[in-house]
Amino acid sequence: HPGKLVNNDGSGAWVGGMAGGALMLDGVDDYVTIPGFKGVTGMRSRSCMAWIKTAGVDGQILSWGTNATGQKWVVRVNGNGTLRAEVQNGWVYGTTVINDGQWHHIAVVLDSDGTPTVTDVRLYVDGVLDAVNSYAMSSIDTGSDQDVTVGAFLPLPNYFAGLLDDVRIYDYAVS
Q: Is the sign of the CA dihedral 89, 33, 157, 11 positive or negative?
């Protein structure tokens, strides 16, 4: 699905990355939207992956859905610098620091059993299953109001500051 760069004319946005060219986002107001693509909705399994390089916190890597309890899907850097998945009023975050200014491959995998909750989400950093630091329980039933966005969740953005490369969404749980 082709994306549209918002609040950035593209000059200087593309730099060397892990799998070719990486997108540099400023953490102020630029992001990518994928018009017409609603991501993986409902209670279905999904996998989200990317190469990231950041020193920031609270930056949203990938998002879509509806801004209501259990209905948004956000993959981001947590306030303590670890990987976080959240669904509005529910979240899970890991223990491995990913905002150290180095490249990290992150993956968030939901293997749905038909009634998924945040405790069904697995977090991976550099190919290793990350231990859960904390979670707030919520069911997952992702809405379809917002198109997939890379680098923000609108209308309440925490913009991503750093480099993103090889961002992927699958409609199944990878092993």
A: positive
Per-residue pLDDT of 94-152, as tens digits, reads 999 999 999 999 999 999 999 999 999 999 999 999 999 999 999 999 999 999 999 99
pTM here is 0.95
* Cβ-based neighbours of 12, under 8 Å, separated by 6 or more: 24
Cβ density class 62-90: b for 16+ within 10 Å, e for less: bbbbbeeebbbbbbbbbeebbbbbbbbeb
**Side chain identity at residue 138, one-letter code:** S
If we measure between CA atoms, which residue out of 42, 23, 41 comes closest to residue 147? 41
Cα distance between residue 49 and residue 108, in whole Å = 7
Other residues' Cβ atoms within 10 Å of the Cβ of residue 8? 18
> To the nearest 10°, the Cα dihedral for 92, 57, 34, 11?
-160
Nearest to 150 by CA among 127, 173, 169: 169
* Residue whose structure tokens are 């069911």: 139
Above pLDDT 70, what percent of the chain? 100
